[in-house]
Structures are given as structure tokens and as C-alpha cells.
Write a structure and sequence with these properties.
Blueprint: H1 18-21, E1 31-35, H2 40-51, E2 55-60, H3 63-76, E3 81-86, H4 92-104, E4 111-114, H5 132-159, E5 163-168, H6 194-219, E6 223-229, H7 243-255, H8 259-262, H9 264-271, E7 282-284, E8 287-289, H10 298-311
InterPro entries: NAD(P)-bd_dom_sf, SDR_fam, TIC32
Pfam families: adh_short (PF00106)
Protein name: Short-chain dehydrogenase TIC 32, chloroplastic isoform X1
């Protein structure tokens, strides 16, 4: 399928792996947090960042799975610096606990990768009574990012090394509801569709990255925020799809990326010198791309920010 691909302006293609797009990059001295690092492209992202010398904190819901991934990475890369911390993005209390634990450690933070997500689940409310896709894929990451911004700003001011926030979206964001985000129907059980709920959360990811980039630029701080589409990757995110999961796993090697390819755009945007200073953009296949027109609406991004801020108002960082 990819035999006749042409390289994009970056010099890479959709077939490039995370190893390839970071080859020769020295990440020593950087600290990164990766959500959802216990499986799939998240685990590969952690491995490759560690391979390049980055000190990585895996923020995971399943601590046992996270520890197993860490052990495998350290076995392969004895010098790897990887820690595992518990984080359930569907719980705002868990997000606050994680952020408090990390910031109290006094560790620097250069890179934040919002990777974790759910897809196609039956209608479910989170522990905070918010539809699960929106709660996990967007709102948990929104709160996490805001709570960690002080640490990122402090790190930037002390080191003068650019900070980077990478939000993993999906090209599925193009297929969200006509209005983009149904603010008044987030918890609508009657009209619920798992795929549209997922697409809505993914357009929220792009809108979040764009509005965050605008605010960071306005603040004059050297931290960028971008969203990425990893490609269609055969991972456990499809576990809710029943029969279709098996079908996707069977045909995946012919029409989908593997995890090494799926993690590449995230790692490219997180580490590559070509991306220095670029903010508020959308990447796919290791190159700049264009998000949907709906995802680029400035007013919609601001409305989503305000809506999200109201939902997490209790302890959210209010410096933006």
C-alpha cells in the first residue's frame, strides 16, 4: 500500500517509524510525561523517548501494565529513565492527584504528550458524570495540561529550552457533529452514538491545542502546542468494537500502520528540531497537515475552552 510513497517536506512518510524520525536526536536533559503509555502507540512513544535519552513519566490507569512496559523498556535499554505514576483521565480527582504528585516532586517538565484515549464505548458517564469519551479524551487532558503549565513554564524559564505539548487527535475529527461540539448535549443518552462521541472528543483535541497555542503565544512563553493524527493503527483502542476488532486485526497489516509507525508523528512533533517554534498546527504522517475547517474555528475553540474551564473550575490553574 505504501510502496510508492513520496517523502513529505520533512523528509519522512507515513511509513516512517518513531525510531527513524528521531534518529540522531539527543533528548538527554528533557523530562516528558506520556499519558496512556502502558500499551499501543503510547508504549512505543515511551520507549523511543527513553531511547533518545529523555526521562519519561508514564501516566497510566493500569499500574501493573505500566510496570510491565517499563520493565521491558529497561531490559532493552538499560540506561532508560522511566517512572510509572497512576492516572485515570476519566476522574478529575485522579488528574488533580497526579498533577499534585508530579509538581510536588520538583521535577522539570519539557514535554507533555496527551496520548491516552477511549473509542466506541457504550454510553457511559465518568466518575464526574460526564460522557466518557469527552471526559477521558478531552476534559481530563484539558485539566492535566492546565495543572502542569506552571511546571512547564518554570522549566522553560530556567533552561530556555522550548517546551512542547503534543495532543493526539485523529482524522476522525473531520466526521464530528455538524456543530462540532454539542455543548448542551454532551450527556445525551438518547441520541448517543459511540463513533460520533469519539469524533467529537477528537475535534475537541484539535480545538484545545489551537486555543492553548494562542494563549501561550500571547503569554510570550516558549512552549508550543500542536495536535497530531497518528494514523489508523491496529491497537487495543479498538477493543470495544467486538467482531470488528477481530476483522481489523486480521486486515490491519495490509491497510493500517503498526505501532512503530503510529507513534512516529507524536515523537516527531515532540522531539524533532524541524518543529521548533511551530505551534497551533496539525500534523499527520510526520508532516504538517490541515485540520478540518470546523477544528480551525477560533470562536469555537474559545467557547470550548470556557466550557471546559467551567466543568473543572474547582481547582484548575487560573493563570491563563
Amino acid at each position: 500500500m505504501r510502496l510508492f510513497e513520496r517523502k513529505g517536506p520533512s523528509g519522512f512518510t507515513s511509513s516512517s517509524t518513531a525510531d527513524e524520525v528521531t534518529l540522531g536526536i539527543d533528548g538527554s536533559g528533557f523530562t516528558a510525561i506520556v499519558t496512556g503509555g502502558s500499551s499501543g502507540i503510547g508504549a512505543e512513544t515511551v520507549r523511543v523517548l527513553a531511547l533518545r535519552g529523555v526521562s519519561v513519566v508514564m501516566a497510566v490507569r493500569n499500574m501493573t501494565a505500566g510496570q510491565e512496559v517499563k520493565d521491558a523498556i529497561v531490559k532493552e535499554i538499560p540506561a532508560a529513565k522511566v517512572d510509572v505514576m497512576e492516572l485515570d483521565l476519566s476522574s478529575l480527582a485522579s488528574v488533580r492527584k497526579f498533577a499534585a504528585g508530579f509538581t510536588s516532586s520538583g521535577r522539570p517538565l519539557n514535554i507533555l504528550i496527551n496520548n491516552a484515549g477511549v473509542m466506541g464505548t457504550p454510553f457511559t458517564l465518568s466518575k464526574d458524570n460526564i460522557e466518557l469519551h469527552f471526559a477521558t479524551n478531552h476534559l481530563g487532558h484539558f485539566l492535566l495540561t492546565n495543572l502542569l503549565l506552571d511546571a512547564m513554564k518554570k522549566t522553560y524559564h530556567e533552561t530556555q529550552r522550548e517546551g512542547r505539548i503534543v495532543i493526539v487527535s485523529s482524522d476522525g475529527h473531520r466526521h464530528t457533529y455538524r456543530e462540532g461540539v454539542r455543548f448542551d448535549r454532551i450527556n445525551d443518552r438518547e441520541g448517543y452514538n459511540g463513533f460520533f462521541a469519539y469524533f467529537q472528543s477528537k475535534v475537541a483535541n484539535v480545538l484545545h491545542a489551537n486555543e492553548l497555542a494562542r494563549r501561550l503565544k500571547e503569554d510570550g512563553v516558549g512552549i508550543t502546542a500542536n495536535s497530531v493524527h497518528p494514523g489508523v493503527v491496529a491497537t487495543s483502542i479498538f477493543r470495544q468494537l467486538g467482531f470488528f476488532e477481530g476483522l481489523l486485526n486480521y486486515v490491519g497489516k495490509y491497510i493500517m500502520k503498526n505501532v512503530q509507525q503510529g507513534a512516529s508523528t507524536t515523537c516527531y512533533v515532540a522531539l524533532h528540531p524541524q518543529v521548533k517554534g511551530i505551534s497551533g498546527e496539525y500534523f499527520e504522517d510526520n508532516n504538517l497537515s490541515k485540520a478540518s475547517s470546523k477544528a480551525m474555528e477560533v470562536d469555537l475553540a474559545r467557547r470550548l475552552w470556557d466550557f471546559s474551564m467551567n466543568l473543572v473550575r474547582e481547582t484548575v490553574y487560573d493563570g491563563l
